[in-house]
Amino acid sequence: MIEAASLFGTILIYMLSKRLYRRKPLLLLSPLITTPAALVILLVTTGTPFGSYNAGAHWLSDMLGPATVAFAVPLSKHFDLIKKHAAEILASVLAGSAAAVASSFWMAEALHLNKQLIYSLLPHSVTTPIAMNVSETIGGIPTITAVAVMMTGIFGSVAGPAVIRLCNIRGDIARGILLGTSSHGAGTSKAFEFSSVSGTVSSISMILAAVVTLAITPWILAPLHLFLSGGPG
Amino acid sequence: MKKAFNTIVQIFVFILISWAMNKLVLWLRLPVPGSIAGMLAVFVLLQTKVLRREWLEAGSGWLTAEMLLFFIPPAVGIVSYRSLLLSSGVQIVLVVALGTVVVMMCSGLVAQSIAKRKEGARPS
After folding, report:
1. Which of B24, B62, B67, B113 should one mutate to test binding to chain A, selecting the residue with the greatest count of A CBs within 10 A?
2. Keywords in UniProt for this one (chain A) (predicted)?
């Protein structure tokens, strides 16, 4: 009973949120903010634990896997275009992923977070399974990483269009790179709202960013520490 | 009616592939998420024309269009980390938000400047 209510309640609130957003397109009214917020309020006021909610709602998050597999279709459709822009995608994702790890490190350090928490936040820009893997490798706490990844997805898909407007980013390729590199799957689903090309480039960038982050993070930790203390010693 | 039926069948095909690839990745102990391995497998099958794009296009379109909905339950899951959020939630949100804007500007502006240079270099 509660399972069915969780599943269909989530879909219903999501549909209402989408309608509200269409009528009033404010950042704070994005469905990825209003829907979880409404559900959290519902869970807290009715005293429902997340576990019982998720027993029904997990059917929705289970669709993330099939949706990722489905990226293969637009990827194959736009493959020639991707090949043509391969250098641009690769260079931008490399720059973005290095910036992701370095900026998170310095900001977390400036906010005096403890080491374990800092390490947990470093891979927050990439897709959950890879981010948790990186976190574990460098000595972070994978569950905290998963929370940060989720926050990144929400923030990125909400703020992405605003950054695109402010920085005057034109072209489907650059927009896709920006969203996929910064905010993984949630950014990619936003990119598909711009265009099918943006979405495809975003899914490619999301995968590249995951691979790059997995490869570089353990290696740039030492130089980052060095920069901070102003030299060896 | 027929179109809706086709879309639903195609969605089930994606669910099946994703499920099978998850098992395969576990069994082979590959350090790749099953969904990404599945995407690469379907991509190869499409490029080699073993699968035709028309067979999967409707289901793929629906799944990618509605993907934000699938992020809702994990987003609600943040509620389970109340003590972490109370102790360092503000700092975490700051790092995530500012970091994400930095990554966006970095990757977006690099991409845009390369695209412009390419355009400029092209003889007209």
Report:
1. B67
2. Membrane, Transmembrane, Transmembrane helix
Measure the CA–CA gap between B43 and A152, rounded to whole angstroms: 28
pLDDT at B124 over 60: no
DSSP A134-180: HHHHHT--HHHHHHHHHHHHHHHHHHHHHHHHHTT--SHHHHHHHHH
- CA nearest neighbour of B10 among B47, B62, B73: B62
The question of ipTM being above 0.85 is answered as yes
Write down the domain spans for chain B.
Answer: 1-70, 75-124
Q: Each residue of A15-25: pLDDT tens digit? A: 999 999 999 98
Question: Which residue type, as a one-letter code, is found at position B119?
Answer: E
CA B51/CA A36 separation, integer angstroms: 38
Report pLDDT digits (tens) over B26-46: 999 987 788 889 999 999 999
Cα B79 to Cα A41, A51, A59, A128, A135: the distances in Å are 10, 11, 19, 17, 21
Contact A188, A180 (CB under 8 A): yes
User: Tens digits of per-residue pLDDT, A173-182?
Assistant: 999 999 999 9
Chain B: closest CA distance from residue A231 (Å): 24
C-alpha B100/C-alpha B121 separation (Å) is 32
Instruction: Give per-residue burial for A145-163: e unless 16+ CB within 10 Å, then b.
Output: bbbbbbbbbbbbbbbbbeb
Tokens 């402010």 belong to A166
| Whether B118 contacts chain A with CB within 8 A | yes
Within 8 A by CB and 6+ apart from A62, the residues are B70
